[in-house]
Write a structure and sequence with these properties.
The protein is mainly alpha-helical. It is 70% helix and 3% strand. It has a three-stranded mixed sheet with strand order 1-3-2.
């Protein structure tokens, strides 16, 4: 291993550890001290996502001093950002979310929140939600990649398996306090988050970039915030519909598998797969 590659990996590890301290310790304290508590949906939404706004500012401002490169370069793997891949994965992801919402339609009702409240939340949701999802992607997917490979890349899928496993665990652990995990009587929600993290990391490695994972994550969170949220969700929003939260339902596992099967098939057919699956 070259000294340059070792330095990149060391800096990425330090950046990731500092980011986790900001996300789970410094930012929550700052949000509590700064934000007033008046119980409105808008302020609740900002408070829940406030740590991610602070995290993103931290990542943006300290990327150059710590990583010696702008955040944009950390967010790219092998090739510059591919807008077409990002947009197509976004559309396909939303299509899957809609299909499975229709499958669960019997447990879904119209949210009685007024349209004035929805309109008031629309702009903050459209701005804050992508920041929140992208911040998670940087810390849980992109920085672990730099820790694993520096500026290099795995030549075989087998070489990337440790990164995929670690990225999945790192993504899963912060989601364990979520309502669906706490209220479940099975390991299904935990399996769901692990599968989600595995699929996103796998897509990133196979396509040689983070566009697919970022598109899935952003559209998933926007869909929940704007269209169909769960009753008792950890993410307050004024979505159009609410569905009963059944944390033990295997449907979330089926939906996740269907989503990644579709996205992997599309990526392969369009020539975005850039790594051999041979050992």
């Amino acid at each position: 291993m070259t000294e340059e590659k070792l330095n990149i990996r060391t800096r990425a590890l330090a950046f990731m550890l500092l980011s986790l301290i900001v996300l789970f310790i410094i930012a929550p304290i700052a949000v509590v001290l700064i934000m007033p508590e008046n119980g409105s949906i808008l302020l609740n939404y900002i408070m829940v996502n406030g740590p991610f706004i602070i995290l993103f500012l931290f990542l943006f401002l300290l990327s150059e001093p710590i990583m010696h490169r702008p955040l944009r370069e950390i967010m790219e793997m092998e090739v510059p950002f591919r807008k077409n891949l990002f947009l197509s994965i976004s559309i396909l992801s939303v299509a899957v979310y809609i299909v499975f919402s229709l499958i669960r339609y019997e447990a879904t009702r119209i949210n009685d929140t007024g349209w004035n409240t929805r309109l008031m939340l629309l702009l903050p949701v459209l701005i804050i939600t992508p920041i929140q999802a992208l911040s998670e992607e940087i810390v849980f997917r992109m920085l672990p990649y730099r820790i694993a490979f520096g500026n290099g890349k795995p030549c075989r899928l087998s070489a990337a398996m440790p990164y995929i496993l670690i990225s999945s665990i790192v993504f899963m652990l912060p989601h364990l306090p979520n309502a669906e995990v706490r209220t479940a009587s099975s390991f299904i929600p935990i399996i769901y988050y692990f599968l989600w993290g595995s699929g996103a990391a796998l897509l990133s490695v196979l396509t040689g970039g983070f566009e697919a994972a970022a598109a899935m994550h952003i559209t998933n969170n926007l869909y929940i915030a704007l269209m169909v949220n769960y009753e008792g969700s950890s993410l307050p929003s004024a979505s159009v519909f609410l569905t009963e939260m059944n944390p033990d339902s295997p449907m979330v596992i089926i939906e996740t598998i269907a989503l990644f099967a579709l996205l992997l098939t599309y990526s392969a057919r369009k020539g975005y797969i850039r790594i051999s699956s041979e050992k």
